[in-house]
Amino acid sequence: MKEDRLFDLLDARVVKEDRKEEINEIAFLVRRCMNLSGKKRPTMMEIAMELERIRKCQGDFKAQENFEEFKYNTIELIGPWDVTSASTGSFLNTNASYSSYV
């Protein structure tokens, strides 16, 4: 952070132009958490409150944007697989068995 190289350390997918302020705020919080003097570090309550403030500053638009990206990635992961399933078992009567193929 002293040499202004924070964005060189992060994955390019994380560094988006509209997220730089948020990333800087989180990096500043991390820096405070890493203070060698335990008395100078923020409490967990302070950390939670700060992260909540940062999250709220993003607004509903960012949440919707992230959901759409998650939805797209999930669809991409499951993809059009050809799934075949077979099961056998008994139904009410222990002498009767069934088999189904999907």
TrEMBL record:
GO terms assigned for molecular function: ATP binding; kinase activity
Keyword Acyltransferase: no
Single GO biological process annotation from the record: cell surface receptor signaling pathway
Gene3D superfamilies cross-referenced by the UniProt entry: Transferase(Phosphotransferase) domain 1
Keywords: ATP-binding, Kinase, Nucleotide-binding, Receptor, Transferase
UniProt keyword Ribonucleoprotein present: no
Domain of life: Eukaryota
Protein name as annotated: Wall-associated receptor kinase-like 9
